Amino acid sequence: MKVVIADKSHIKYAEDICETIAESAQVRGTGIARRTPEYIAAKMENGNAVIALDGNRFAGFCYIEKWGHGKFVANSGLIVHPNYRGKGLAKKIKHKVFEHSRNKFPDAKVFSITTGLAVMKMNSDLGYKPVTFSELTDDQTFWDGCQTCKNYDVLTRTNRKMCLCTGMLYDSKAKNLEEENKGKKEDKKIKEKVFRRLKHIKETMFLKKSKK
């Protein structure tokens, strides 16, 4: 089993990928934005997709979408073929496409909208945070893509403020700032600990001198 960045040599799997995504959504009874084989093929040609292969057999897939003039990217269409589910493959694909997204679009915020608890857990492990839809891309083309989802009426009735999907966001700049602040707090704690220790030593020495 190998998980690689897809290219034009993998276009032959595009139709199978689309069918697997649609069938999976139907079984789960969840909404999904449908994609055509041509759309999937374009993602492969542009190097914006990850595919898992067992020899010459398609095992899993996920692709990258760019929104808001590159300010946001989304990892979409995560799917594992029924024959390969329950083996941790989805997590491997998710990690691969997330890493590829950050390398290819280092300044972009990575976001996800999903109804799947397993995907939410994977996102959380990668550092995504739950957010309101207003914090995601305002690119109308992205939201237009939700029209083929059976829950689209929920999105429109709430003026795009909420839906059955949960919005999640990974912001590398915010993450770095959070880690920097955490580091400063830890440094402050260490300095305070050292200061208290020195203070204790001086007080002890002072008391000894006072007793003499």
UniProtKB/TrEMBL annotation:
Keywords: Transferase. PROSITE patterns: GNAT. InterPro entries: Acyl_CoA_acyltransferase (IPR016181), GNAT_dom (IPR000182). It comes from the Bacteria. The keyword Methyltransferase does not apply. Residues 3-149 form the N-acetyltransferase domain. This is GNAT family N-acetyltransferase. It comes from Flavivirga aquatica. The lineage of its organism: Bacteria, Pseudomonadati, Bacteroidota, Flavobacteriia, Flavobacteriales.
